[in-house]
Amino acid sequence: MNFSAVIDELRRIECGAHTHLLNVLETVKTNFAKECKDETLIVALKTIIDNIIATEKTEKSPETPLKTPGKDVPIEERCKETLKSGVNIGKPCPNRAVTDGRCRRHIPKENTSGMTCMATMKSGTRNGEVCGAACRGGDIYCTRHKNVKCTFKDDKKKACQYGISRSSADEKYCRVHLTEEFAINTSKFLLYTNKFGNREHNYSELVFEDRKVIGRQMIDGSINTELTEEDLDCIRVYHLPINPKFNEQMTAHLQKLK
């Protein structure tokens, strides 16, 4: 048995089953000692194999069993919530409670706007119900639903990238494309006084002062005076007059559309 054959045999042992490992190693050592004339290699290989055999014969310490979530958490210290999904649906949460009887996973997210999500659930046990989850900032949708996009596509089948308008009864269209859902006369615009006392254009959610757009009405009552691309598109589609300070921004926006 040459040295190359020994290496191949050791690789086979390493990658394969170890049922006859000790016997095979003894055979390799014996055959190599008979055929090899280099005493240095014989001694080196013998030392390596003897060490492997000694290691295999040593009793291995039992593997540490995997911990089951909640196994080491006393029942009285566990989260009080019930799992709503997954293989353990309906079972008590096994994690340790950290605040108000809830684990970190089940602590309610802070509702900084005081609003709840208006999106309608499309599947699951709550299919057809209003989501009701907490919203953040001036959003009308929670983090799960706020990225819902308008379903409108132009002549080139390019999809609109704006979010769903809160005025869309079908929850399909953004503020710009509500004309696809409602029969809106864009040749004139009507304003109403909203609950914050501001004059607002219903479909665009834009606020007016002296019959000119000055910003967008936010859910929390504030007015965002920094117009977005969607705001500018609303102004274009609904033919709304703007405050002169937005003239340069509007001109640049129209140039991009050409």
Fraction in beta strands: 5-15%
- Secondary structure class reads alpha+beta
What's the gyration radius in Å? 36 Å
Task: Kindly state the number of beta strands.
Answer: 5
List low-confidence stretches.
Answer: 14-19, 59-68
Please tell me what the overall shape is. Answer: elongated
Mind explaining what this structure looks like?
The protein is an alpha+beta fold and 258 residues long. It has 4 domains: 3-55, no CATH class; 69-107, no CATH class; 110-145, no CATH class; 178-257, no CATH class. The chain is 26% helix and 7% strand. The chain contains 5 helices and 5 strands. The chain has a 5-stranded antiparallel β-sheet with strand order 1-2-3-4-5, with no helix packed on it. α1 runs antiparallel to α2 and α2 (21-35) runs antiparallel to α3 (39-57). The chain is elongated, with a radius of gyration of 36 Å. The model is unreliable at 14-19 and 59-68 (pLDDT under 50).
Short structural description:
The chain has helices at 3-15, 21-35, 39-57, 229-237, 247-257, and strands at 191-193, 199-201, 206-209, 212-217, 223-224. The chain is an alpha+beta fold.
